[in-house]
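Below is how a single chain appears once it has passed through the pipeline. First comes the sequence as given, then the structure the pipeline wrote out for it. We keep one example in the README because the format questions we get most often are answered faster by looking than by reading.
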Amino acid sequence: MGSDLPPTDPGWDALARVAEGDTGAFTGLVEAHQERLLRLCERLLGDPEEARDAAQEVFLKAFRKAGEVRPLGQVYTWLYRIAVNLCFNKLRRRKLVRFLRFETDPEEPDAPAFDPPDARPDPISALEARRRWQSTRKAIAKLPDNQRAVLILVRFEGLSYRQAAEVLGITEGAVESRLFRAMRRIEASQGREDAQEKGAPRFPRTEGKR
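Resulting structure:
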């Protein structure tokens, strides 16, 4: 039982003080978690402005629930749970076909950076890496909601299976199973694209002879 309690996480103390009427105690909690919470909302909603509104709403919900929550696990996984539920509800309400932004909008240069870090490879390798990443993003867009959520939490947010299970309210076995199925779907999708590309007609390269 002692391993489930987070005595070193000051967030629970802050929430307890908020529940007792100390509204100023909430400021530190927001400062400690707003960056990662905003990033999660951006990845789920694909819109920076809506993500900021969602993050504020998450903190507002957390503030109101300060007197109800049990101090189990880590505070940020509790906040993640609120955020995931809130974002999925928003997405269902507006009936989006896709949950993530998969095309770069030139009018929104500050859109959430979902791409992996650019290691500055040579141009040909960079083009191939970009092509495969675009293929991966399209495959992610087609995943069922529950598999996409697990993939984002574990692969992109770096949560452990236990933490992801806590956020989503499922077992660690279910997290592992959903992640496995998500990765298999992505690999299958990439395999189909590779096969299609190999079967496509090839045109001779022009060398620009003079």
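The chain has two domains: 1-99, 117-200.

See the next section for the split statistics.
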